[in-house]
Design brief:
Layout lengths: L1 E6 L13 H4 L8 H9 L5 E6 L7 H6 L2 E5 L5 H13 L4 E4 L1 H5 L9 E4 L6 H10 L5 E3 L24 E4 L2 E2 L10 H5 L4 E2 L2 H13 L5 E4 L8 H18 L5 E5 L7 H10 L1 E9 L3 H6 L10 H11 L2 E8 L8 H12 L4 E5 L7 H8 L24 H15 L2 H14 L11 H17 L3 H14 L4 H19 L2
Parallel strand pairs: 1-2, 1-3, 3-4, 4-5, 5-6, 7-10, 10-11, 11-12, 12-13, 13-14
Antiparallel strand pairs: 8-9
Length: 490
């Protein structure tokens, strides 16, 4: 069969990094790892094409070639995904749709021939058989959660890695915590399922075999959900780096309690983890209790962030405003915490109720739901009635984000981070692409855009005071340009 796999267009969001692609010489930030993995589950004698609409346009000729169109989308992709569905249906091609968008509410897409709800591994044999027989069912959903070690290696041959800023691997699915607003435990469970270290090393070898030398994103929602298994993997990666002589760095996501385990933190540094995204949500204890963020209770969160920075890992963090316990002063409280803790990449979002979460269920019972989530963490829209006046909340949110990513506040935050940061562990090789990105940034950020004087002062201070971390300073300046553009659009 001829199968067309389509990754829809990502709109302008906090994590899209759309505005810096021209600086770094790439087309988009992240590859469609889910689609690449699904592709590996299809028969090897089928003809596959993958179109990432963030890399190139989808044409009618692409759709006409296919016997079926496989579409994977997150909630934020809905407008683009609906366009792909409409075009495919118009050309008489059945759509097999999966991913969070369709898992959260497949019934909203009656025009889709087939929806895969949840994880795909267990249902693919039946789906393939039915597709060959011309009798696709409307819905496929596994009864049990799959063993992730049985998941095949992604089909990296279907994309050109040079189009992407970072490539990805997955170690685990699931999270032991059950934050009220988060759907991870509902979708993937509270008992993390992990791949054996040998299997992850095999995936890393496959990435390196493509010629990749850049960063690798370990996409787990909580890499340390099973600490013992995470340590085993980290030791294997340390040995792998030494044996293969590779110099790639890693980014991942984890919970703040990683600071409670010095051995774990040390292993992450030695394995080459340079960035970790942590859900801090709020420095206000009442808000953390409200959303059951138990791992953040009774902690000095700023001190925890500094401890990770001191170890040689940069903390990127998520923050939320709009909890019932939040009052009008929450915006300044959040701003002050983020600045003083040196959390450079601070994704601040309005609270949103995602389908399948305990928050969604509670607000539905209370009659407070007003709409659906857009999946965009920076669009300043509410889908429920908050306790705080909605206008006060949305305007305070917009003001907070704009302040955080104004040139002066942002560069001061980077300097605070650099003052705490202790570069150590293995470091990636600086490449010509990095030098070219720096040169382009000198013109775009240092000449063509507002905030240029703050930029030059920042570069000078970084070079004089934090020379060893100057590559990180340049990277953060480039990243900050994207954040500033999206913040100004609010």
């Amino acid at each position: 069969m001829n199968i067309l796999l389509v990754s829809p267009l990502t709109p302008d969001t906090f994590w899209s990094f759309n505005h810096v692609m021209r600086l770094v010489g790439k087309k988009t930030a992240f590859p469609p790892l889910g689609l690449l993995t699904v592709a590996a589950m299809l028969p090897r004698d089928w003809n596959l094409r993958l179109i990432d609409m963030n890399v190139r346009s989808l044409t009618d000729a692409d759709i006409a070639w296919a016997d079926a169109v496989f579409l994977s989308a997150m909630i934020v992709h809905e407008p683009s995904a609906r366009g792909v569905i409409s075009r495919s249906n118009a050309l008489g091609k059945p759509v097999v749709a999966g991913g969070p968008l369709f898992t959260s509410d497949a019934d909203r897409f009656p025009e889709v021939a087939c929806c895969v709800v949840g994880e795909a591994e267990e249902v693919m044999p039946a789906l393939i058989s039915d597709l060959l027989a011309g009798g696709l069912k409307r819905r496929y959903q596994a009864v049990e959660k799959p063993r992730v070690s049985d998941t095949p290696l992604p089909r990296w041959d279907l994309i050109d890695g040079r189009d992407y800023v970072t490539l990805s691997v997955q170690f685990s699915r699931g999270c032991p915590f059950d934050c009220e607003f988060c759907d991870i435990s509902a979708v993937y469970g509270r008992v993390p399922r992990v791949k054996e270290p040998e299997r992850v090393i095999e995936e890393l070898d496959a990435v390196i075999a493509t010629g990749w030398e850049g960063a690798i994103f370990v996409v787990d929602d909580n890499f340390i959900g099973n600490r013992a298994k995470a340590k085993r993997l980290l030791r294997a990666i340390i040995d792998w780096r030494e044996w293969r002589g590779v110099r790639v760095n890693f980014t991942t996501e984890a919970s703040i309690n990683l600071v409670d385990d010095p051995e774990l933190l040390d292993l992450m540094v030695r394995a080459g983890v340079k960035n970790v995204f942590i859900g801090i949500e709020s420095p206000q204890e009442e808000s953390l209790k409200e959303c059951s963020k138990v791992q953040n209770f009774r902690r000095d969160l700023a001190a925890d962030v500094r401890q990770i920075h001191n170890a040689g890992i940069q903390v990127m963090a998520g923050f939320i405003v709009g909890f019932d316990s939040d009052r009008a002063g929450i915006f300044e409280y959040q701003r002050r915490f983020i600045q003083e803790a040196g959390v450079v990449t601070a994704m601040v979002g309005l609270l949103t109720a995602l389908p399948g979460t305990r928050l969604f269920a509670r607000l539905t019972r209370e009659g407070r739901m007003t709409g659906r989530s857009t999946g965009n963490n920076l669009d300043a829209t509410l889908n429920f009635t908050p306790a705080l006046d909605p206008e006060v909340l949305t305007e305070g949110y917009r003001r907070l984000v704009k302040e955080l990513y104004s040139p002066r506040e942002y560069y001061q935050r980077v300097l605070t981070f650099l003052n705490e940061y202790r570069p150590c562990g293995p470091r990636a090789r600086l490449r010509m692409a990095d030098f070219l990105a720096f040169v382009r940034s000198l013109w775009v950020i240092g000449v063509a855009e507002p905030g240029r004087w703050e930029y030059w002062k920042f570069l000078w201070r970084s070079l004089v005071s934090y020379r060893r971390a100057f590559p990180e300073a340049v990277e953060l300046a480039i990243r900050g340009y994207h954040f500033r553009v999206v913040a100004e659009s609010l």
